[in-house]
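Can't paste images in this forum, so I'm doing it all in text. The chain is below; anyone willing to post the predicted structure tokens underneath?
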Amino acid sequence: MKESQPNQPDPLYVIFENHLYQFQDDTIDRKTFVIQVVEDYLSFLRRKKIAIPRSLEGQIIEELANQVHTLLIKKIYGFLTIKDFQKRAPVAAKRKAKALYSKLNKRA
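Text version of the structure:
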């Protein structure tokens, strides 16, 4: 029987938070932000040697985009833009997101 791994955060959420807190380009819209997160997540899966069947790729990308969009709406609720959210985000949250993202990339 395999030992269970300690609770690790969902890689999609880690990538999402890193993008959110390290956000630099306030000229991009939410849709572009979501696409960037999904592309980064798909790159992570490829580095982990996880294959996505071509026949399902479109549906998976659409589902991931919906999940990221929902995360974004919930996370920045009450702010007009991502930049507004980021300005008021605690420094500790930014550091934690960056550290988790670095750790995630080291594992991949």
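Residues 75 and 85 are 9 Å apart (CA to CA). The two ends are 24 Å apart (CA to CA).
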